[in-house]
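Now for today's protein.

===
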Amino acid sequence: MHLIAPRDTITLAGPHSLLAVRTILVCAGLFTAWPAWGLTTGDLYRSGKGATALVIGIDDETHALSFGSGVFISQDGLLITNAHVIHEATRIMVYGAADGPTPVPEILAVDPDLDLAALRLTYTHPVPYLSLAKEPAEEGMSAVTIGYPRLPDVLQTGLTIHPTVFPVTVSGEAMGQSRIAHKPLPFLHITGLMNAGSSGGPLVDAASGHIVGLMVHTVPYLETAKNMQGESIGRVMLRAGLSYCIPSARIREWLAANHLSGDESDEPPGRTARAIPKPTAFDAHVATAHLLQLMADVIRKDPDLLDIAIRHYESALLVKSNRPDILHDLGRALASKGNADEAWARYELALTLLPDDFKLLTDAGDLRRHQQQFDKAEVFYRKALQQEPCYSPALLSLGTMKSEQGDSREARRMFQVVAHCPSPSSLAAYQLGIELERRGESTGALAVWEQALGRLSQQGPVEQDLITRMRHRASQLRSRLSTPSAQTDDFHLSIAGVGGAKDNPAINTSRRDHTQ
C-alpha cells in the first residue's frame, strides 16, 4: 500500500481498491506557556487533545472517506468542525482521544459557504471541552494546533491513531473569501510546520488555553526532484508552512445565528486537564482497529487494511483477553478476509459470553450463510430478531438468503418489513433505501425515502445535501415504476411474525438450535 497526495486528496491504493480521502492540513509554529495562568505545557497538551476528536465523513455511494478533526466546545457534547469534512457524507463517525467510537452525532447546523458545522454527541458523562476565546488573536501570539490523523503512521508503521499537537505562531490577519459566495472574510494567518489531515481542529492560545480559531487550509506546493546530474526526475508535494484559520469571533457569530453556544469559562483548563485520563493501550488499539475496519468496509473489504485491523484487535486481546465485543470485531474482520474457520472460532467464544447480542447473532448468521449453511444461518437471524425485531441488517440478510434459496415471497416480506420499520435517523433511512434498491426492492426504497423526506421537510435546511440526494433517487425510482403509489400501498405490514415478541407464533423458538 502506498500514499499518493494530489492537491488536497490522499488516495490509499491497495491491490483491490481505491480510497479517496479528502484532507486539509494543520497549521503549526512555536510557543511558550505562561506560568502566570497556572497553565503548564502538559496542561495545554492534555486539555487540547482531550477536547479534540477525529471526524469521519463516509460517502456510501462513491465509497470515499473524508477525514478531519473537530473540537468540543461544551461539556454536553457540542462539537464544531469544518463543513467540507461532512458536507457530502451519508454517514458521520467521531472518534475521541480516549473513548474509542463515540455516539452517532446529530447534525445541528452546516454552512458550506463559511465552512462551519456543528454536531451534538450525547454522552452519559461530561465531555472535556475548550472555550472559545472572547478576544481576538494578536500578532505574534504563541499557540498550538491539535488535530487528527497521522494516517501514514497508522498504515505504514503500525502505530495507533492519536491526536497531534503542533506549536505555532499567529502571524496576523489575511483577507480571503468564503467558499461558495466568495464574500470577503478575514482569516488568521499561521506559520509553522504541518501535519496531514486536521481540518476543523482547534487553534489554541498557549497562554489562556482558549480556542482562537478553527483550522481550514494550508498552502502546498510542488517541488521538482532532481538526480545527481541536476536532471528532473519527478515532482514532490511539500508544504509551505503557511496556514489559515477561521477566527473565534466569526465562529461565535455563526453559533449565535444558529441559536447555539458553547460553555464559557475565563479560567485556563489546567485543573480539568489533569483529570483527563490518558488513553490506555487497550483503548488505542481498539480505536485504531475500528477505524481501519471502517475504512476497509467502505472500500469493499480492502485486505491490507483488514490485516492491520486484525493485528490491532489481537494486540487489544493481549491486554484484555476474552473481551466479547473485541472477539466479535476480530471475527468480523477475519470473516471479511475470508478466514471463515478463524472467524467462527472468535464468534463461538463471544457467543458463550454474549448469547443474546443481536448484532453478534446477525454476523454469525452472515458467516453461516456465506458457508451455505442456510438452516444454521436462519436460526441466528431469527434469534437476533427476537432481541430486536427491526434490526435492519438481520432483516436484509434473511431476505437476501431467502431470495438466494428461491423463496421470493418470503424475501419480499422481509424487505417490506424493514421498509416499514422506523428509521432511527435520516442518514439511516438514506442508507437503508440504498440497500433495498441494491437488492431489487425499489418500492421499499421509495417508501423509506418518501417517509424520511416527509420528516425532513419540517426540519429546515440543516441536511440539505441529504434531502437533495434522497429526492433525486426517489424521483428516479418514481420514473421507473409505472404506478409507484399502488406499489407502495402494500407497506402496511406489522413486524409481528418476524421476531421480537415472546408470544410471536412466527418465531419457532423450539426448533433445533444449529449454532455449531
